[in-house]
Structures are given as C-alpha cells and as structure tokens.
C-alpha cells in the first residue's frame, strides 16, 4: 500500500525526455512541496518512508548536518528511455536547506535486500553494498580491474606500455608484508610503480636529505611514516607492485641538482 508521498511518484515510467535531461534519460522532478516534517509523519505508517528517513538521518549525521536545517525536499527520478535500455537509472532525494543550499542523496537497493516497496518506487536501481574502507578486498579488485583495462583496452592507447614505464631515478621498494622498506637507486630499468601525489601540509613529514640518504637506502621504518604514506605503501603491496615514488623520500630535499 502506498502512502500519500509515495503516490506522488507514480507514472514516472511514462515520461518524455526533458530538453536538459542527460542523453537517453527521461526525468521527473517531483514538485518541491514536501516538507521534512511531512516525510517524518509519513514514516510512522509507511515502511518505505521510514527507510528513507532513517537513511537520510544517517547521511545527515555523517556530514555533520542538523536536520532542523531542512526546509523541504523533493525526489528526482531518472529513467532510461525505451530506445536506450542500457542507460543508467538514478533516483536522487534533494533537500533544500534554510540557507538556500542543497543536499543530495542517491537512492538504490542492495542486491540481497528482500523488502517490498510500493509500485511508485518500481525500477529502483540495484547496487552492491559498498565497504566503508577503501582497502577492502572488493575495492582492491576494482582497482586491479581498472589497471587491467588500461593495459588491455585498445582504446587506452596512451596507457598501454608493454614493457612497463622506465623507473624514476629513485623509488621506494615496499618489500612484502613483513619486508623492509628502503629507497633504491635505479639503473634505467622498467617496471610498474605507483606515484603518490599528496599535500605536504603544515606537519613535518619524513624526508630524504644528503645526511639521511644512506639511512633511507638501508631501511625506512613504517612507524616513521605519516598515515598517508603508510596507506599508499600498503595499497602498493596489495596491488602486487614492488615500487612507489614519493617525492619527499625519492628526491634529496636539500640538493638543488637532484
């Protein structure tokens, strides 16, 4: 059974494409005449609205937003045209805040969910549950698939390097899980490596200088690295690569010629 709010979304599958809608997409923008209070009231009797309120509150909390700031909300539905069945489906709930700004939340169902939803929410986009960790096994597999695509896809001609790129003058050898980190000087050999681009910030980070170069060649302690460096090195290992280039470690910082 649909509540009054859910009933407002019926018929979205029969829309004609709007001029400013994405190519291959039909869109309906539900009028912004619904208040956050309306949704909370409906959530008391409608399971679908209850899920929406609960999820939105979680997003508000995650982004440090007070729900009292919400003036009104609307939901935009994006559906593939019948001629373009491969177009992506999207549902976005858009909140207008008291300061005139907007806060958007994308809606989708989880593959393993077994929850009845009103007819008005038919064709809800389906996605997999996403880990909160960027180093999760699923995330690593996605990164590997992107890297493989760059190497294999004939359309990625600028990415294809059969012999691998030539290594910079120095790189950090990440070793294995329990291995020793160290800066190594290369001799023009080729190999795949990761390059870390990062903001140095105001906190002093570990660097290589003329005085510390020999020490860096022998060993770099993980405990001496910033969280950013540690994460990058762990990711390099998980991707099955041996080298990473980090400017502060691979360039002698007090040498103008280096």
Question: What can you tell me about this protein's structure?
Answer:
The protein is of the alpha+beta class. The chain has two domains: 6-13 and 20-127, no CATH class; 163-250, no CATH class. It is 26% helix and 19% strand. The protein is built from seven helices and ten strands. It has helices spanning 4-7, 36-43, 47-62, 137-152, 213-218, 227-238, 247-250; strands at 25-29, 70-80, 90-97, 102-107, 109-110, 126-127, 170-173, 182-185, 194-196, 243-246. Strands 1-2-3-4 form a four-stranded antiparallel β-sheet, with no helix packed on it. A four-stranded mixed β-sheet has the order 8-7-10-9. The protein has a two-stranded parallel sheet with strand order 5-6. A hairpin with an 8-residue loop joins strand 7 and strand 8 (182-185). The N and C termini lie far apart (71 Å). Residues 12-18 and 80-89 have low confidence and may be disordered.
The proportion of residues forming helix, as a percent range, comes to 25-40%
Q: How many structural units, i.e. domains?
A: 2
Order of helices and strands: HEHHEEEEEHEEEHHEH
Strand segment tally: 10
Characterize the overall form: elongated
Radius of gyration: 26 Å
Supply the helix-strand structural class. alpha+beta
Calculate the terminal CA-CA distance, rounded to whole Å: 71 Å
Calculate the mean pLDDT score and round it: 76
Biggest pleated sheet: 4 strands, antiparallel
> How much strand content do the residues show?
15-25%
